[in-house]
Every structure is written in structure tokens, then in C-alpha cells.
Amino acid sequence: MNEKYAILAVDDDAEIVNILQTTLQDAGYRVQTARNGEEACRATEQFHPHLIIMDVMMPRCSGLLATARIREKSNVPILMLSAKAEGSDRILGLEAGADDYLVKPFLRQELLARVKALLRRYDALGSIREGRLEDQIQVGDIALDTAKKQLIVRGDPVRLTPTEYKLLLVLMSNPCRVFSAEELYERVWGSEAYSVENTVMVHISRIREKLELNPKKPEYLKVVWGIGYVFEAP
Q: Can you tell me whether residue 79 is helix, strand or coil?
């Protein structure tokens, strides 16, 4: 049942908040709302949602800033909402830590499809607060703890978002294999890939910042120009 999922809907537009709340509640989700980024940060700590739907442009604290703050403490999936469809705005959202991006105005069916996909990914990966010690996937001095859904870089634990974890799980489970951006997107996002190069690239860049000594000259997570991405030991 969807009732087990709690969703935080954040937007300064009362009409959008009402649409989000009604659509999600009609689909069986528990919904909490916030009207700006500051409220969103407080509600995340108090409400512990399974997913956050975050508007980009809001007073007092933007969705981008709120997402970055939430990412310092939480790996909850975040779906970013924006009235702008430009690729640069999408990249800014992803760089801030969002997992997916939806342009307003949106179809309710598309909203629910994105929500279901993110929650399926969250369930598949489990909560980082849970888990027991299990085997690790090791490539060189980089390890992926499949119980805690955590990256271990040269002995130090590193926090990952669910999307970052799933990307690394695919790549590190198949070291030295080259994956195209389209194949990674279909495996990780669980939907058909169309013009997804920038989306995948942003997530790869964020992962590099977490595991590479010099992200501009990566030793592990590399680009095979014109083909895709590969994870291999130096």
C-alpha cells in the first residue's frame, strides 16, 4: 500500500501545493507540505519523508539551497520541480543533489510515475539508516558496502544519494565494462532513455567529487569518449 510512504511537497504556490497534495493523497500517499526551503529543511528532520518534491524558485530559501542543505544529512530521494525546461536549470538541480526533475505544468500521471520510480529505487536500495554488515564490492581501494548503501573511499565512509549508489552498483559490479549513458539511465532510472547524456553526466561528476583524488583526472570512473563510462582500478 502507498500509505507506508510519506512525501513532503514543497512549493510557494498554494495552487501547486494543493494539486500535489490532492494527487498524492488520492494515490494513497501520506503528505506533508512546506511553502519555502527553510520550512522544507525543518520538515525533513521532523517528518522524515521517504521522498521530497521540491520547487526550485521559492522565497527566503530556494529549492536548490534547501536541497543542498538536506543532502548534508539525508539521502532521501528528491524530485525537483521547475517552470523552466532549459538544460542548464536541470543541471543545476541535479548538481544540488536532486535525483530527478519535472517541468511545470506537469501531467498528474507523469508526476505519479516519477514518484513511483523514485520510491521503487529507494526500496530497492533500502534506507542508509538500516542494514547489516555484508560483503563489499571492492575495486582497488574503493569499496561499495551493499548493506549500508555506502561508499568506502580509501577506508573512509562517504555518503551517497540513492541514484549515486545505484550508478556505482552497476559500474562497480561490472568493472572494466563500458556502459553508454542510455544504458545507465535505463538501468538506474528505470525508464526509456531519451536525451539523457547531461543527466547521467551530472551524476557521474558528483560521484567523481566523492571518490577521486583529482576529479578532473579520474583514476577510477572514466569516460570512454563517444561510447560511455567505465569503472576500473588504476
A: strand
Q: If we measure between CA atoms, which residue out of 24, 17, 63, 23 comes closest to residue 44?
A: 63
Helix, coil or strand: residue 231: strand
- The CA R_g of the chain, rounded to the nearest whole Å, is 18
Determine the pLDDT at residue 132.
34
Q: Which residue has the cell 526550485?
A: 56
At residue 86, does pLDDT exceed 70?
no
Burial (CB < 10 A; 0-12, 13-18, 19+), residue 132, is exposed
- DSSP label of 113: H
Question: Considering the domain 2-125 in this protein, what is its CATH number?
Answer: 3.40.50.2300
- Which contacts qualify for 66-70: CB closer than 8 Å, 24 or more apart? 66/10, 66/37, 66/38, 66/40, 66/41, 67/93, 67/96, 67/97, 67/98, 68/96, 68/97, 69/37, 69/41, 70/40, 70/41, 70/44, 70/97
What are the residue ranges spanned by the domains of the chain? 2-125, 136-231
User: What does the pLDDT look like over 141-159, one tens digit per residue?
Assistant: 888 888 778 888 888 888 8
Cell matching residue 47: 517528518
pTM of the predicted model over 0.90? no
**Domain 136-231 is of which CATH architecture?**
Orthogonal Bundle (1.10)
Q: What is the pLDDT of residue 207?
A: 94
